Structure formats: structure tokens, C-alpha cells
Amino acid sequence: MFLYHVHDWQQACLAPVRMAAEAAQAACHNPLFPVAYSPAARVIAAGAEMIERTHWPYSKPPFGIASVKLRGQKLAIEEEIVTEKPFCRLLRFRRTAENSELAELISHDPRVLVIAPLAGHHATLLRDTVRAMLPEHDVYITDWLDARMVPLAAGRFDLEDYISYLMDFFRLLGPELHVMAVCQPSVPALCAAALLAEDEDPAQPRSMTLMGGPIDARAAPTLVTEFAEVHSLGWYKSTVIQAVPFYYPGAYRLVLPGFLQLQGFMCMNPGRHAGDQFKIFQMLVRGDDEAADFHRKFYDEYLAVMDVTAEYYLQTVERVFQTHDLPKGNFRWKGRTARPEAIRRTALLVVEGEMDDISAPGQTRAALDLCRGLPMPMKQYHLQIGVGHFGVFSGRRWRNSVQPVVRDFIRRQQAAAFS
After folding, report:
1. Are 192 and 293 members of one domain?
2. Rounded-to-integer distance, Cα 70 and Cα 29, Å
């Protein structure tokens, strides 16, 4: 239980190393330094930066979306907190048009809630997802809070609470809402929609897009699913669950620390990450700062992680990856069974990546079979060739190939609702 303390102590001990690396970079980039422009200075500066970045404690980056363009005109973007709960803020990216004609046009755009995963990374990991949707949609996102910053007095937060949050957000944003669940939240999003459907609640979403999520982890085994199957819940409790140290606002809360999750992410593809770091080093030595900056920004985001509550993590491992409650028809929420077959009004789009090694093709597609109460015209499947897990919702292929499919699907459902 002292692993968290050891990690923070290590970070504190490495502070002088980071300072020395910063000083070396400053000296080698100083034009008054006699050898500043020499190959040797570039190698030293590049090496110093890699040392600094390896040991830097990364914090949550901003979304940083100031504007987007629609029909050649600028839409100014401002973040707005719609509502706030102990473990999540619901953010809206409010758009402001330059003229009244454009303002009238965007006022009729579909309202879309992007459900960010609560799996170690901040919601800002979906920055590219949000940016691509903003020109033609009124976009909201679940901005989950770092559990180590939530006081113990706020109480527990588990998988069932996650579903309750989503149902509250669905009701708040209205009956014509379109939902996009990226990766892990595919399961709670489907459960929330099913529970609302069974109650014939008017807040049922108009459409739901599930992207690369473990609806049925048995359908296509990966390293993630195999790891969960061979380790008992007791192993997780004794090995990875830690108490937040006393000097954080969430002192003594039991969590899965972000730094342990990050180690798990990195260990899945150690060769690729090591290769990327060497590429950055080579770019810096060559003076190719623009290309290096692209990789820097990716790792600034990727290495910024957050803690999640122990109860939420353990429930997810058990019910999603070990007992497979949802596909077996056994998923319970506050004593009720979530029945996807009850969904009849919420159109469903499933998106998977051909090379996804986290939620492999087939895991998310299982939702189409579970929602057997939906007529076929209200179901759609898209397999994006040539992308892995992150390529489903971020990057060039997301913007050029996946997002147009999602946009057109939402537009069709929006049009059907008012026809």
C-alpha cells in the first residue's frame, strides 16, 4: 500500500536531474554559447530533453480548441461547465458564429454527448474527436475528475454510479440527444440506454455510436482480456490498488493509480514507444523541430494520467472482462437487469478498428446482436481498415474516414426524428 508514496518520493528525488537537464538544454540552445550550433551541442541538448521528458510529472493538458471553421468562416469556441458532480464535469464547447446567418445555421445542429473513457487518461485524449465534430454539432463531453483530487467525503464511485451519471446527463441534455461512447464507456452507455428504454423514458438518446469498446470481451481475445482472465480479483486488490497519500485532497481513497495504468499501457507496445522516443531524439539532433513537436504533443497527452477509484476499476474488471455480465444478460444496476433488447428508439452505430489490439474487432459489434429489438435499418456497422485503437477516434483516418460516417449517421437519425 506504500507504492504510491514510493513513486512520489522517486519523483521528488529526480527533481535535480530534471533541473540539470533543463540547464543543459538552455546552455546548448543559447546563441552566446560558443558551440551552440555544433553537432555535439545538438546531441547533448536532444539527450537532455529526452532525460527531462522521461522523468517529467505530466499534468492534464487543456483542450485548447479556440476555434474551428465551417464553410470557410470561423466559429469561436468557449468551454462551459454545464453541470458538475463529485467525479465528473459535463463540459459544453459553446460555438459563436461571426454572422447571424451562420449563427442560425448552427443553432439547428444535432446535440452530441461524447462519453470519454475513465480508464487512466484524461478526457483531453479525445481532443481530436471533439475538434472534428464541432463544425457541425453542438458538442458536450464527460470530463472525469482525477480520483486523487476528490475528497473521501464525496463517497464511493463505482460502475453503477457511472451509469447513473450518464442517465442524469441524458435527461439533462434532452430527448433528441446523440451519444458517442469511445472505448470503455461503450458498456455503461449501452446499459444506460437500455434502462431508459425499459422505462420508456423520454430522455432515451436519438442515436448511440459505440467506438472500440468491450461489449463482449469474449468475441475477440486480446492481451487485455487474457490478462484479466488469468488474474483473480484478489490479485488486483493486493497488487495494484493503492491508498492516496495524505498530502492529496483525496487522501486515503483507494484507487488504481494513473502511473500503474500508464505502465500497463506502455508494456503492451514497448518496442513502439521506445522507437518513438528514439525518433524524437533523431529529429531533435537533425533540427527538425516541427516533426518533433508533433510527437511531443502526442506524448504530453499520452503520459498525462489520472487515478480511478478502486471500486469502479474492480467492478469493471470483474463484470466486463471476467464474468461478462452484459452479453450474458446478467448485468445489474441497483437491483435491475439492463436489457439491451429493450432498446427500440435509439439507433445504433458500431465502429471498430481493423488493427485494434485493445478492443479487437468483434467485441463492439456484439452490441448489434444484443440490441435485437432494433429494426435493421436503425443499425449500422463500420470497420475502419488500417487503424488501431486510437486511430478509431483520433488522427487522419478518424477525420477523413470515420467522422464522416458518424456525422452522416447522426444526420439521418436527426432527419428521421423530424420527418
Report:
1. no
2. 40
